[in-house]
Amino acid sequence: MQSFFQVVVWPGGSMKGHSRQHVCAWVLGASLVLIIINHFIYNDLLNDTRIKSLPAATQGHQDSGQQGQARVGHQQYRDRRLVKELEDIQRQISRLAGQKAVVDAKWAVGLKAVIADLSPKMAVTNLSTWDFSARLKDMEPAPPSPGRTRHVCPEVYLGPKVDNFRFHGMEAEKCSYVPPFREVLTVVLPAFSWSPNTTTFVISQIRKFYDIPIVVISEAPNITHNMTDVTTVSYNSNGFYDGSVLNKAIKQITTPYVLVGMSLAHFDNQSSLERLVRVLDDLEHVEVAAGAARDLQSHWIHGCLQQRLADYQALYTTGYYYSKYECMYCDDLLTPFITSTKFINSLPFADTLSGPAMYREWFNKVRAAGHMAMVCPDVMFYLTSHVNMIKEDWQKVARLWNIEKVTSYTGHVHSFSCKSVDISCKDPLKRIKSFLLPPCCRAIMEQELDYLLDYGDEHNLHYELHAGSNLGAVKMGGYLPWDYDSDILFEQQKYDQWLKMRKYIKKRKCTLNVVKEKVYFVIKCPYFFLEFYSHGNVTRQWLPAEYRNTPTKILYAGRWRNVVANPGLIARNYIGFEYLKHASHWRTHSTTDIGKAKGGYENPGVWQRCEKPGHHSCYDRYPGDGNLPFLKPFLHP
């Protein structure tokens, strides 16, 4: 796999069979900023004008006034949505500015959709210089472009009345400039758990429609005996993973394209392989094309998935945002697919995975490399069963991706402990230089704090969440994902009583160390530490006299905890300018004089550049403002 950080590919530019070109990501980022400024400033002015020009809500104009207000409200909602889409793309681009990095093909697709929303006339302008989508029968066919190889003939649309049942309409033309299809595509059948009867039946069905090479992966080495142009790759389920065997089989292929026909139970002329090859020929930013599928229970699915990784979580959703050539853009696919042999050899399956986890990991690599996949639902494959992933399957990819929670495309939520997916909470300071602290590690810190505060409550010792813990409570309702300690303020007269918890905390394998007698001590636990500061009084002395015996409480990690008297005011005065915006922990970067003068941060809301840009928990993948991107990482505005 090529690193996310090695090469820049310009979507829509030459990729297949051509050299990859390096571009500056900041150019596209600057263009996005101009789009935002030009469109949305104009729209704000336009909306102001619309509002001012609305008829007065009198009896005679009430209906028209309400309709006008509704139109403006709809326009404002649309603008917010488009701003969010542009902001997401711009943030991903700006974090790579000035570096060599993959320009994700999805950015181009998303930007084109925004353009279409803003100006439908611009959307009909085809940006491709080589477009072989189906033409109307009265139009001249597009000529082959010099220097380009076409593997299948183009299509013509004959209209909706070719036959009564609509099984015809989009039809392939006859042409003389394409190679025989047996020189174009090879079928690979990963028959890891297929019965011999299913394997031979599927091969015979494919042969009825296509005279193309077939490679079968099977534990039965003689299963294809006497079959012409069928190769068997032997497989021992006890000795090898599916990924390594599949990679071995694909390396034998000499045709430009390969069909990975997992779970096939049947085959007929509704599984048009030419249609999928045509999509790959026509759309350079698409590297994988699949069809829909029907299983033995007669259940049909399109199999297009969207995937998001954020804050050590993965979310899979069935569906699509964009389409082209009557095919859906997807992040992942659940159905048989075609890809180029060159591409799949350059980005092989993980040789330590088997089953559906192997495909999830592979499609994640495809997306990380900036490429797109598609499902064309008019192509239908026949499967024994649809993909069913249980918790053990998801745990395999969770380990690889450093995630502790997966929401499956079925809606099932699978949660994993830090240990089960190899997430370590050791050395949090090192981690928070670039990455969010994993939620399971934050939970450990919140549990440690709960344990100590419960001790204070049980012994009637007054305390208040202070400093960074107060800030976390105000902004996140819990532990800041870029913090690595907790801060508690308590009454100095209770100092000796707090020290008595030494024995209490041994159960948690924690120790208490006095740093400054009568003023400050630290509790060190296996992964984190907690700082206790004493003052003559806690801050509730500044509450009205009637409230001083009732400390202010704030929701922290699901529990109402004592906090400084006015948490927002004290956080603002403690941190200074723009304290609601975010910045990495002060211990992870140097602070300038002007930053110190401002309260600690010169540019709040601007993250440090990540040391591993492809990771889903890099700070700079997230906005520098707002708590919802962290509390609800998959929430759309």
UniProtKB/TrEMBL annotation:
One GO BP annotation of this record: glycoprotein metabolic process
Domain LicD/FKTN/FKRP nucleotidyltransferase: 458-505
Entry annotated with the keyword Transmembrane helix: yes
Record-annotated membrane-spanning stretches: 23-42
Top-rank taxon: Eukaryota
Keyword Membrane in record: yes
Keywords, alphabetical: Membrane, Transmembrane, Transmembrane helix
Name listed for the protein in its UniProt record: Fukutin-related protein-like 4
Natural source organism: Homarus americanus
